[in-house]
Amino acid sequence: MTQARTHVSAEPELAIRVRGLRKSFGDVVALDGVDLDVPPGTVLGLLGPNGAGKTTAVRVMATLLRPDAGEISVAGLDVVREAAAVRERIGLAGQYAAIDENLTGLENLVMVGRLYGASRAAATARGHELLQRFDLVDAAGRPAKTYSGGMRRRLDLAAALVAKPPVLFLDEPTTGLDPRSRLDLWTTIEELVGEGRTVLLTTQYLDEADRLADTIAVIDHGRVIAQGTPDELKDRVGGERLEVRLSSAGQAADAVRALAAISDEPPHCEGDTVTVGVRRRNGMIVEAVRRLDDAGVGVDDIALRRPTLDDVFLSLTGHAAESTDDGDEQKERT
Amino acid sequence: MSRLITDTLIVAERNLVRLTRAPDLLLAFTVQPIMFVLLFVYVFGGAILVPDFYGSYVMFLLPGIIVQNIAFGGFVTALGLNEDLSKGLIDRFRSLPMARAAVLAGRTLSDVVTNTLSVLVLLVTGLIIGFSFDASPFEVLAGFALLLLFGYAFSWIFALLGLVVTSPEAANSLGFIAVFPLTFISSAFVPVESMPAALQWFAEINPFTLVVDAMRHLWVGAPAGNAVWGAVVWSLVIIAVFAPLAVSRYRRAAGH
Predict the structure, then answer these.
(1) A9 pLDDT band (50/70/90 cuts)?
(2) Cβ contact (<8 Å) for B97 and A117?
(3) Closest to A226 in 3D by CA, of A96, A314, A117
(4) Number of domains within chain B
(5) Neighboring chain B residues of A112 at a CB cutoff of 8 Å
(6) What is the domain extent for residue B145?
(7) CB–CB contact A98 B89 (8 Å)
(8) B13: closest chain A residue by CA
(9) pLDDT for A102-159, tens place per residue?
(10) DSSP state of A23
């Protein structure tokens, strides 16, 4: 229905449209006026540290939470007034694989299929199809509690796809997975997008957003602080990054002082590595080495590189992206 | 409405399937109640004076201990819901286009099945150690129906408990703190007349006393006044109050 309407309308409807989304829990403002646009068939990466409001935003869009204010439509339907219809068109998978561990893989999928209104036979057929696709055929008859972390995520993702929803919400789909399972899941997500699905993905991993997302919205303290393609965001940081690994982390302060003059922005220091944005390429390394040498700072390695999303996040927020909950709380307290 | 029934049955089926995968829980339904019946009959039985009408303590005790047991049957709902909440399953259910009340209705419905099982286990144990019915088949069945209705009502209290508390351990201890005194300060284990005045006052208004008296009336012909109707009304009132509370809590439930 929705897809048909999308095709006939002159202007392609947005798959997800968020305007002025606000949500507070008591005194804590989780979302403070968020706007998002996701055209059909694209991936929006919602990028931010823990506690930035990513999960709250997903829960509102997936009809699990009522917004305090704002207009939110998914697949052309209002998530508050038409919540039931929205639920027919979305799939939700997340960092907590929401599967019943005592049921087998197949039983999990059949249960979800029947709760979407399918007959037992139809739900079973679809379950087998998904198990095949997610490489879980061998484990289909085993209780899910015997599954590895990667298998659980795949089953969880399969459960989200039971009703072939046009819009998919993936809340930190690879958090806590080993690198191999992570790569596998990325490939799977890319396939899903290739089928024309719209995906909203939250992540605190910049490489994940860089690889999967067409557009990235950087969210911090409940606000979208930047939005654009990965390349656009990198351009915002401007120029190349000069990365210096020091012989001794104890000289970081000296190195920061020595390098301050070659950049418009203050150098960033993490452990024994100092990073600084530079305006031009030619002669930069020579100049940096000379200045460090004058300051008596020992250097192990020095290189110029293209900016990553880490740099984007740093220059936008003033703190690193992959900070932990604890780190954030400590920062807020001090 | 038909959607509610279908979805409720799907959820109930899921709960019962997973019960067979966790046999230790089944053990709790069967062995533990048997143990309590035997302990009460053979340890306390000789020391507790019951009205001559009953003839023996097991005749007095069995309806009472079955009522106590069925009130605890709802623990499965509290623990199961709490686990679903912490594992994110409630989020999944709430993102599906299913009937809103079905997760809770399915939970409480599967409790009826497990409650039936534990009533049968207790009844067989009782019959072996000297309990016998003094009732028409209709009264025996009516007793069964009343037990299941009362157990169902308690499942809704436990459903709310499971959604409100932060951990299964909390559900466990809060449930015990609430239900244990209620069942003990009633006519379930000793005649109310043997208690101190204050406890007697509480026992007489305690719904457990009403339900236990109703069961004794239905199964062994003890005089009970209007206890049967009172027990039915109590059960319906509990459902009418706690089912909407639990469902409204479920709609706002936030997992992780």
Answers:
(1) very low
(2) yes
(3) A314
(4) 1
(5) 92, 96
(6) 2-252
(7) yes
(8) A111
(9) 999 999 999 999 999 999 999 999 999 999 999 999 999 999 999 998 899 999 999 9
(10) E
